[in-house]
Amino acid sequence: MTATAAQGGADEAASILRTRGLTKRFPGVLALDEVDFELSHGEVHALVGENGAGKSTLIKVLTGVYAPDGGQVRYQGEDVRFDTPLRAQQAGISTIYQEVNLIPLLSVARNLFLGREPRRFGLIDFPRMHREAATILRDYGVEVDVTRPLQGLSMGARQMVALARAVMAEARVVIMDEPTSSLEPREVETLFSVIDTLRERKITVVYVSHRLDELYRICDRVTVLREGRVVHTGAMADLERLRLISLMLGRDMEQIERQGSTTFGGPHQARAEEPVLVADDLNARQQLHGVSLAIHPGEVLGLGGLLGSGRTETARAIAGALPLESGRITVAGVPLRRRSTAAAIRAGISMLPEDRKSEGIIPELSVRENIALAAMPRMSRFGLVSERRIDRVVDVFVRRLRIKAAGTRQKVAELSGGNQQKVLLARWLALNPTVLLLDEPTRGIDVGAKAEVQRLVDELAAEGLGVMLISSDVEELIEGADRVVVLKDGAVVGELTGDEVSEGGLMSAIADAGADIDPPEAGAAETSPATLPPTGTAATSADGTVTTGEDTADTRATAGAGKGPAREEGR
Amino acid sequence: MTALDIPRLRIDRERIIPWLQEYGVYIGVAALLVFNIVFTPHFLSLENFRTQAVQVTPVLILSLGMALVIATGGIDLSVGSVMALAAAMISLYLGYGPVVAILVALVAGAAAGAVNGALVAFAGVQAIVATLAMMIGGRGLSLVLLPQLEGIRNPGIRELGAGSVLGVPYLVWISVALIALVVFIVRRTTFGRQIVAIGGNRRASELSGLPVQRTLLAVYVLCGLFAAIAGVLATARLQASDPNSLGVLIELSAITAVVVGGTPLQGGRVRVAGTVAGAVLMQLLVSTLIKHDLPPSWTQIAQTVVIIAAVYVARERGKK
């Protein structure tokens, strides 16, 4: 692979892009501090670090969004300085952002060819464009009617269109920023096979992700940033997982080894009382089919299953945010009559929604207002707000959750992802709930905040709350939950208790269920290459629990189940 | 030299734009005041200030309601027509006495607002479409009710339009009271907080258990009510009900006042003091140009310049 170019190799021919002493300052922050970063031809290079480590700043400097304050960038053997993103693109550096920058209302083909349409007599040659677009996209596993508007495509398919577009523009370096965060499992597989093709074509990929399993699976080399500095660079395979985490965190190795990479303690003392929440036979059109579960006080109940298995829908149904056809929800023995978010909140159910940006924070409001939002009616009398009571509650939670902000009046949009998540947790805890539903509580937040959130979940359970935990991070789910209810296609297919709560147990529960159930929902089918058996793809993914990356096509359910324990040995 | 100058300019720009967003409208008002004091004869007279204050009343009151609607991320184009509707009601029900007539007018305004609010909150119609329908329908309805201008000779209504207490016209007292009311709503009530939260992120507000639909309905009712108050006061001052031309295009002045005052059109934020200053700014601008004998076309051009300047300054916010 690229081992020759590793370890600061000065081999000019092998490196396509190299920075020396790159520095970027923002008011009060040194975002990049003398960064030396090197990319070899045709490698997949992981760029990792906590939020605020300088990853996005580095990307933005490389792609001409920011001008560096010092240092130099050598690209294809020449010193370069891109004034605008367009210049960088023209030079062959393309970025695929999380929020893909395409035009939703134009057709798929036009998006692909925008600015480079094949012409005939000065007009766009539509038949040729459509033909070519279909051919090109087939290589990326996207088989759709290319004349239809882009907005009909799933996020994954859109990302593929953006990727295809970048490659067509003769990109030499493709930067992917959290490319899998909005992808279905099978779309992730497609993405990985596309990355393999890019590698063969000697196109360099910079891969930014929080998901360690993906990094180990797809990346050749890795650069770790912390506080604006490069703290490690080298071959991915030579870097142990724990060492990587300790590099990112700046925490010492033994400590992590002792604690595991999550900060969850042992099992919680589930109290043998009546369950605090009972959901009985929940049915929602095409989403939930007879889901029943119970949560006891002091217990963390995990919801296992793949993306699209109905975990989020179950949480939403309980929280009153998803209309149900039938089903009963009982909180501490009292049945919930009216079904609305307000009624659920009054009954003591709090739900931390999955999507922090679009469903959680109110960006223009302050930390304080965001925390007080849901509890406002309780902290007011006759519709009048009591500032004193709000301040008291807000201060308690800012201290307890260690929310780092310039003050409680700072706009929440200015905080880091981890702190925004803590603000949301504070919003829900301020309601003093009896049941807390956490949907992906640590997604997209830095490792430090993740550890704090996990510790908090433990504490809350110890205080007697009933907690439901949904996480795509299998490790988090296994270590955090006392009991796991496994869902598939909107139905409960198994329950793991005691020693069964392990990665292997979860994998086999999902895989067994997969054997006799038809292919899952059709929504993502259009983006799946015909070669991948649908049931199999679903079983591997579980958000990158499969670490061995040698064969992406071999994704049968049995293989997925077999790899769970294999990974345990690897650690 | 130049290499040194450029970064300094940049830093200044980064500071000036947010500063202008906050205080630009007050600077505008101050600049116009200074200009008038220097160049306009008899500007510094009590009588002149009284006239200005009375003339700004309708736009000011409309823009208060509009600011709340815009803070939820909506807009209300029907306020001018609701004014006309209120005027028509006054004429029709004046036979029962001025108090009844005014109450009917206010109820009609609130009802129009309720229709807007129901369409937006429950039927999910876009605010601009729902209120555009009301803008056309409301005007049509008022013309059906009262086909032409009708003079009003009721002494009570006359007193409302022309009388004053402690040297300050009733109209000004009423606008001050309404400003205080809106400030109170925004600062001190959960309703006010919910308005801003819904404008900032509707989905998050729903999931947090906020009564989103009820709040939206209430905001549009309030805006309709404010429009009716403006209509009643304008009728009282004119001493005539004129459904044909009362409040035509005034919604645009109200929206301008709100935007110039620093409330973003996408919602999530409301600035009451800025809105008041915005209304005053537009009023001063018009009266300055009139006093210097410039044709009305100049007024329109000047308003355009102010709007573009306000939007330009606001645009910078989106970038950061």
Please provide a written account of the structure:
- The complex is a heterodimer of chains A (571) and B (320).
- Chain A has 571 residues and is of the alpha/beta class.
- Helix content of chain A is 35%, strand content 23%.
- Chain A contains 20 helices and 24 strands.
- In chain A, the strands form 6 sheets. Chain A has a 6-stranded mixed sheet, with helices on both faces. Chain A has a 6-stranded mixed sheet with strand order 18-21-22-15-23-24, with helices on both faces. In chain A, strands 2-1-4-5 form a 4-stranded antiparallel sheet, with helices on one face.
- In chain A, helix 18 packs antiparallel against helix 20 (557-570).
- The longest helix of chain A is centred in the middle third of the chain and has 16 residues, at 185-200.
- Residues 1-11 and 514-571 of chain A have low confidence and may be disordered.
- Chain B has helices at 2-39, 46-71, 79-93, 98-121, 127-145, 155-162, 170-188, 190-200, 202-207, 212-238, 250-260, 272-291, 296-319; strands at residues 150-151, 164-165, 168-169, 240-241.
- The longest helix of chain B is centred in the N-terminal third of the chain and has 38 residues, at 2-39.
- Chain B contains 13 helices and 4 strands.
- Chains A and B meet through helix 11, helix 12 and strand 20 of A and helix 8 and helix 9 of B.
